[in-house]
Amino acid sequence: MSEHTQWLYRIVPARPGMAQDPTPDEAALAGAHFDYLVALQERGILILAGRTQEPEPFGIAIFEAPDEAAARAVTDADPAIAGGLFLATLHPYRVAVARDGLI
Question: d(Cα 25, Cα 83) in Å, to the nearest integer?
């Protein structure tokens, strides 16, 4: 485990049906969101991210930040959250069990 606090942000599409039929602008924001998560992973901040595979999905990102203000800054900087594509909630989190190499 890291000495940093772990956090989870949960996202849901702001528009029902967006996952099945995104507009071009929504697709662009979703792409920027993915690129943002990859950049967080490359910087050693992101632990994991993904989404459910159902018609009305939700996604999660689990990451490290030293405090709530820093965690909120990571969450708010996600282009899809800042752009209104996703609604997000932030939660303090701790990975308790993981496969080797995951954390």
Answer: 10
Residue 63 CA to residue 41 CA, distance in Å, equals 9
Record: fold of 5-93? Alpha-Beta Plaits (3.30.70)
Rounded distance, CA 86 to CA 13, Å?
4
Show the tokens assigned to 14.
Answer: 């702001």
**What does the pLDDT look like over 38-80, one tens digit per residue?**
999 999 999 999 999 998 899 999 999 999 999 999 999 999 9
Determine contact, residues 102/1, Cβ cutoff 8 Å.
no
- Per-residue pLDDT of 14-49, as tens digits, reads 999 999 999 999 999 999 999 999 999 999 999 999
Q: Which of 88, 87, 99, 100 lies closest to 7, judged by CA?
A: 88
